[in-house]
Structure formats: C-alpha cells, structure tokens
C-alpha cells in the first residue's frame, strides 16, 4: 500500500471521536466545529500534566519522554503521545544519543476511569503502531492512565486489534476525502457529547421542513 | 441547544477595557467601574469610543466572545474576530448556492415566507389582544393580503418576483403598523420607514433595534461557520453583510418590531429621551439608549418553544438556532431551510 501524502494525514486523536460517534468526528475534523464542555475541559486539564515536551526524565532503567510527536505514513496519521516510556531491555532497540537498548511503551492519559467498552484502546494502539513504524521495531504493549482512579491499565495489543484500527482509519480517510458528515445515530451517548448543540441529533428524526412549512401555512 | 450567555454593553464613553486574569475590567481614568468574569460572556458591545487592550481582544477571539465597536448612535464600526470558524467546504457550498440564482431563490423564499408569516401573526395577535381598540376589519384585510402573499411566495423560484411580492407585503404591513402603537400616540407614530437618518422617534427606535439584531445575527452566522457577507436574497455588495440581512428578514418583525412596540406601549421610554436635530434627524439620549438595551437584554432571556426544533430556548438564541439550521441545510442534513415561523 502506498504511503499517504503528509498533507493528507489525519489527527490520531480523532480515532477516539470516530469510535464514539462518526458524526462527532466529522463535525470536529471535517467541519472544524468545537465546543467545550466539562468533559473536554477536564481532558485539557489532565493533558496539561503530560504536555511538557521539554521535560525528559531518567528513573532507574527508564527514560520518560513527554509529548512525543509521532506519525505513520502507511496509516496516514499524525499525533502526539502523552508519554512514552523507554525501558532498558537487552532485546530492545538502540536509541540515538542513549547507551544501551530500549523498548518503548506508549502511555495515554485519560480523564475519568476505565470504560466498559474499549473506546480508549484504539487511540493507544494507533500510537503504538506509529512508534513501531518510526523506530522500526515490534511492540505488543501500551498503557492507559486514568486520572480519576490515578491508575494505569496495561493494554496488550494483538494482531486483530491492529487490523481493526487499520480498518477504522481507512474509513476515516474515506469520509475525509469525501468531506462528508455522516448522519447521527442518536442514542444515550448524545447526552455526554460536547457537540450536541451543533449536531442537533434530534433534528434528523424530525419531519421534513416542507411539511413543517405546509402545516404552518394552513393554519 | 446551547446556553445563552450574557452580552456586556458598554455605553459609557471614554472607558477603557482591559484583561485581568480571567476578568474584563472597565476603567474610566483611574477608577475601576466594573469587573466581569469572561466565562459568563457571549459578547461585548461598546458604544462610543472605548479603548480595548490587545490582550483582551486576544482573549475574546480565543473564546469566541464577539467584540463589537459601535458609534454612540449604534452604527457599526468594527469587530474583532479570531480565526474564522467552521470549514471551507461549508462556505464553498454557500458560495455555490449564492452564485446560482434559482438555488438562491429557494433559500431566499423561506426567509421571506418567515417574514410575511410573522408579520401576519403580529397583526392577528394584536386583533385578539386589543379587539376593542383596533380597527379590526382594516387589520384583518391586511392579514388576508399577507396570507395571499405567502401563498405566492411559497412557489416562487425567481428572485425578482420574490422581491416584488416581498415589497408589496411590506407596504401592506407598514400601512397598519401605526395602528399597533396604542400609547403616547402624539409622540410615537409611524408614517413610513426612514433610516438615513431616522426622522421620527419610532424610526429611531426601529433603527437601533435592527442594529442590535443585526449584530446578533451576524455573530450567530459566523459562529456556525457561514460567511455573513455572502447572501441569497441580498446580492453581493462590498462591505454589506448580505446573509445577515437575509436572515434578518424573518426576524425583524417578530424580534425587533414587537420589541419596539412594547417599549412604547408599556411606556418604558418617553419622548423626553429623543432629540430632533436641525435637519430633522432624531437621536436618542444616553439614558433612553440604556433603557432600550436593558429591555433588549431582558427580552433575550425570555423563553419560547422553537417552532421547528420544538425545544425550549431563550429568545436570544433564536438567531443562533436559525444560523445553525441554515448551516445544516447547506450541508445537506435538511430538505429545506426551516424559517422561524412564530405565532
């Protein structure tokens, strides 16, 4: 498969929006709409802790790097890893400017607590795939850190996980090329969506405008 | 629907607005006149010369708080906007429709339909509320004529014909507008619309209310990513916010005219606040202008049920909801643009 042109890269963080709701993703990434709500502000706050690109820490056998920009030409995505932990490992890879061999583990910061569905995972998996491509290595593990529980969850990554992420990204590229905003599938998740007021999911279930006008005129 | 935040109107001339942390601070000479947190604000509107610090401009742009400068009489001067919102795909489709006369007419006719419908129901409501004070047959006759115009508009696909129908409907409506003024008749009367400059008290009030409304409509259009300068009924003219004028058609009567009538009929203002200049131009004094703005703000907080969305919103969000519906129509989510048909 040919690599994507750099201009056509999509934002990695969009995967999470896309998994939550395709229309939400399109409103944000195609239509460039954004509204803050409590959850998005909380998210920004949580990431403020991780977003310190000039902070580099060495702890024992770990090298901790924050706000690491990553991309993948084959997937056509670009984004930022909140934290990548490079752990010394004899089976690892060499890093420029560092002694010894390391294995990278992406850590993605999330507000709230672990969710029942695995909507947070695909973003992490995409980050891991970017790291694999940029560092020419094979990885199998990442972490999700949850701000509410102050706990990290280990996320093993399988082949079928990767296939799934690839499929989702292809769909995203397809919509983006068409500049198409899919219709909403309204549901309970709409209540927590920051773009509820822009999306107007209920509107799509309503009668046609033509019949609205007809009925008003016949009054 | 989103929440309506406050608009801060600064009517005291020679004040300076600056940023202090998350607050807007209003100063006059060395004195601090007021301090308001930014997160409660939707827009800031200043009348008369008022300086604003660049830091505050930046903060407003970043948070999409509309910052507008007007002359003391409410003529629009300038506005500070940040990065343009929304996306180029939406705007290009707007331009394509605007370039195609027939497609423009299909949108424009719904603006006009809204205008005539709302005019009709302003009159109908008056005949109901003031049956003993009004010349009912006279008003009913106009109402019937407006119904006829509506039926015509409904199938028009040509902009010139649409303008013709709209013009005659406006003449009909204006012919009885004076009847709706029930108090202070000797000081407040309407013999026709004049605006540059307004030549009587009612026209001065109407002009000012339209200015306030156009400001809200323009910001609403831009906040949903549309280009307020590219219209469908109003064609391009440099410096004219044609789309804002289009959308105002359906809102003028129901939003601004009714507001002006209630100011007069409830005696919230009186003729002492109006000055006639040597050339006949009528201007309002500062206190009256403040009174009008206060009433406008109160009106915006009142709740209604949106006729199409069927959702409870405040009057102040009507321009935003219509702008959003227009954007959704342009994006292809809706079969037509749903005008605000208020009864």
Summarize the structure.
By secondary structure, chain A is of the alpha/beta class.
Q: Any key phrases for this structure?
A:
heterodimer; A: 219 residues; alpha/beta; seven-stranded mixed beta sheet; 7 helices; 7 strands; 35% helix; B: 343 residues; Ribosomal Protein L15, Chain: K, domain 2; Four Helix Bundle (Hemerythrin (Met), subunit A); 2 domains; four-stranded mixed beta sheet; 9 helices; 48% helix; globular; endonuclease (chain B); CRISPR-associated endonuclease Cas1 (chain B); Cas1 (chain B); metal-binding (chain B); nuclease (chain B)
Write the layout of secondary structure elements.
The complex is a heterodimer of chains A (219) and B (343).
Chain A: E1 10-11, H1 14-20, H2 22-30, H3 38-50, E2 56-59, E3 62-72, E4 77-94, E5 101-110, H4 121-135, E6 141-146, E7 151-156, H5 159-178, H6 196-199, H7 209-217
Parallel strand pairs in A: 1-4, 5-6
Antiparallel strand pairs in A: 2-3, 3-4, 4-5, 6-7
Helix pairs in contact in A: 1-2, 4-5
Chain B: E1 6-10, E2 15-20, E3 23-28, E4 31-37, E5 41-47, E6 50-52, H1 54-62, E7 66-70, E8 76-80, H2 88-99, H3 101-129, H4 136-154, H5 159-177, H6 201-223, H7 242-265, E9 274-276, E10 282-284, H8 286-301, E11 303-305, E12 312-314, H9 318-330
Parallel strand pairs in B: 1-5, 2-6, 5-7
Antiparallel strand pairs in B: 2-3, 3-4, 7-8, 9-10, 11-12
Helix pairs in contact in B: 3-4, 3-5, 3-7, 4-5, 6-7, 6-9
Organism (chain A): Paenibacillus durus
GO biological process, one term (chain A): defense response to virus
Family (chain A): Belongs to the CRISPR-associated exonuclease Cas4 family.
């Amino acid at each position: 498969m040919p690599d994507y042109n750099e201009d056509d890269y999509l934002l990695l963080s969009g995967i999470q929006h896309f998994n939550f709701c395709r229309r939400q993703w399109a409103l944000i990434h195609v239509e460039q709409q954004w509204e803050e709500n409590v959850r998005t502000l909380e998210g920004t706050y949580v990431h403020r802790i991780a977003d310190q690109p000039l902070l580099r820490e060495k702890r024992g056998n770990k090298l901790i790097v924050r706000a690491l920009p990553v991309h993948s030409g084959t997937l056509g995505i670009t984004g930022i890893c909140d934290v990548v932990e490079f752990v010394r490992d004899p089976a690892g890879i060499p890093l420029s400017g560092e002694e010894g061999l390391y294995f990278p583990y992406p850590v993605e910061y999330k507000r709230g607590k672990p969710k029942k569905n695995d909507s947070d995972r695909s973003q992490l998996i995409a980050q891991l795939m970017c790291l694999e491509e940029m560092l020419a290595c094979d990885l199998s593990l990442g972490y999700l850190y949850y701000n509410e529980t102050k706990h990290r969850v280990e996320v093993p990554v399988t082949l079928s996980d990767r296939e799934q992420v690839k499929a989702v990204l292809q769909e995203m590229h397809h919509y983006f090329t068409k500049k198409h905003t899919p219709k909403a599938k309204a549901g309970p998740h709409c209540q927590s969506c920051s773009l509820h007021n822009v999306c107007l999911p209920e509107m799509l279930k309503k009668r046609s405008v033509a019949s609205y006008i007809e009925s008003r005129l016949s009054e | 629907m989103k929440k309506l935040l406050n608009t801060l109107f600064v009517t005291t001339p020679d004040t300076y607005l600056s940023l202090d942390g998350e607050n807007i601070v209003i100063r006059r000479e060395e004195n601090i006149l007021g301090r308001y947190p930014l997160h409660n604000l939707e827009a800031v509107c200043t009348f008369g010369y008022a300086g604003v610090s660049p830091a505050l401009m930046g903060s407003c742009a970043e948070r999409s708080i509309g910052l507008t400068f007007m002359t003391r009489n409410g003529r629009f001067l300038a506005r500070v906007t940040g990065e343009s919102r929304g996306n180029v795909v939406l705007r290009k489709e707007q331009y394509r429709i605007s370039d195609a006369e027939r497609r423009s007419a299909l949108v424009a006719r719904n603006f006009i339909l809204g205008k005539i419908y709302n005019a009709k129901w302003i009159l109908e409501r008056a005949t109901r509320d003031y049956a003993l004070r009004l010349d009912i047959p006279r008003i009913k006759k106009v109402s019937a004529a407006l119904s006829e115009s509506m039926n015509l508009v409904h199938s028009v696909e040509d902009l010139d014909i649409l303008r013709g129908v709209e013009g005659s409907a406006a003449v009909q409506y204006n012919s009885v507008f004076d009847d709706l003024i029930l108090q202070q008749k000797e000081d407040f009367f309407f013999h026709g619309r004049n605006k540059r400059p307004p030549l009587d008290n009612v026209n001065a009030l109407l002009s000012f209310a339209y200015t306030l409304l156009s400001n809200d409509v323009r910001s609403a259009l831009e906040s949903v990513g549309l280009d307020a300068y590219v219209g469908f009924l109003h064609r391009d003219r440099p410096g004219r916010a044609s789309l804002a004028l289009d959308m105002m058609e359906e809102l003028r009567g129901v939003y601004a005219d009714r507001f002006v009538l209630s100011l007069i009929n409830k005696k919230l203002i009186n003729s002492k606040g109006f000055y006639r200049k040597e050339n006949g131009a009528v201007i309002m004094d500062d206190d009256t202008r403040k009174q009008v703005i206060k009433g406008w703000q109160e009106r915006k907080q009142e709740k209604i049920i949106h006729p199409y969305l069927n959702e409870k919103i405040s009057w102040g969000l009507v321009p935003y909801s219509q702008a959003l519906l227009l954007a959704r129509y342009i994006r292809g989510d809706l079969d037509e643009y749903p005008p605000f048909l208020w009864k």
